[in-house]
Design brief:
The structure holds two protein chains of two kinds. Chain A is mostly beta strands. Chain A contains no helices and seven strands. In chain A, about 0% of the residues lie in helices and about 50% in strands. The chains are: A mainly beta, B alpha+beta.
């Protein structure tokens, strides 16, 4: 199981600003190990963010997204105390969901 | 600069595509929230092909899309990008790095109520044009910016 994400959701004016830092190696499948064998690709493919159960952002990622991916976006209609949840699935089927409260 | 590594990057490009196809096959779509991952779009080698793979025909240049990033990235492994669009009815925002082995780095879907702007960090193998591709009201628009990389992010 992957390490937890760090999620911060805070009011920015009348919008909620969400910042997510995921813990993932994001291996591209381009690199080789010391024996010359290709290190298999291992990267997050799908990301979904929801606010009180409603989807506020989805993303498809390729292996070019940097290691330990960072993501930030804003949405309207939130208020302090609301729940923001972020989930990802990688190309090996591993998944992780974490939640934060809007402050 | 390490010239050998450049060659390694080029020669492994083809194998990487195979690896990508393999790994995509391993991805289990039967998971609880089965989402699609556009395998064809992520295998494209140039911007025009990416537009087609994402369901468009052509893309028009637009000044309503803004790419915020460093002009010179010291470390290609982590290059921060903010892309924002003021086009009405922005539906999705994609980030393309022209000289990476596969150009498409990420594609964000923006539902109504979410600001048409995202910040993320990507890898860049070398100095390249970076294109933000925005789908708004069913049409594709793009803007391009060159980002210089002093240390590549794909070699390791």
């Amino acid at each position: 199981m992957a390490d937890p994400m760090k999620i911060r959701a805070a009011m920015s004016g009348d919008k909620v600003e969400v910042k997510v830092l995921m813990s993932h190696e994001m291996e591209t499948g381009q690199r080789k190990d010391s024996k010359g064998a290709v290190i298999p690709a291992h990267f997050i493919q799908n990301v979904t963010a929801t606010h009180n159960g409603k989807v506020v952002l989805t993303a498809e990622w390729g292996p070019a997204v940097a290691k330990n991916p960072f993501l930030s976006f804003k949405f309207s209609g939130g208020k302090p105390g609301d729940k923001v949840s972020v989930s990802w699935v990688d190309n090996k089927g591993d998944k992780r969901t974490d939640e934060a409260t809007v402050s | 600069m390490n010239e050998d590594r450049r060659k390694v990057l080029k020669s492994t490009g083809g194998m990487a595509v195979m690896g990508l196809a393999l790994s995509a096959g391993l991805f289990k779509p039967g998971s609880a929230w089965a989402q699609t991952w556009n395998k064809d779009a992520f295998a494209t080698k140039d911007t025009a092909a990416t537009v087609k793979a994402l369901g468009g025909t052509t893309a028009a240049e637009s000044k309503d899309i803004v790419i915020t990033s460093p002009d010179i990235a010291e470390n290609g492994a982590v290059v921060p990008f903010t892309i924002s669009s003021t086009l009405p009815k922005t539906e999705s925002i994609a980030l393309l790095v022209e000289k990476n082995p596969n150009v498409l780095a990420a594609n964000f879907n923006i539902p109504a109520g979410t600001d048409p702007g995202v910040t993320t960090r990507v890898k860049m193998g070398q100095t390249s044009n970076v294109t933000a591709l925005v789908k708004a009201d069913g049409k594709f628009y793009y803007t391009t910016k060159e980002v210089k990389v002093t240390l590549g992010g794909c070699g390791g």
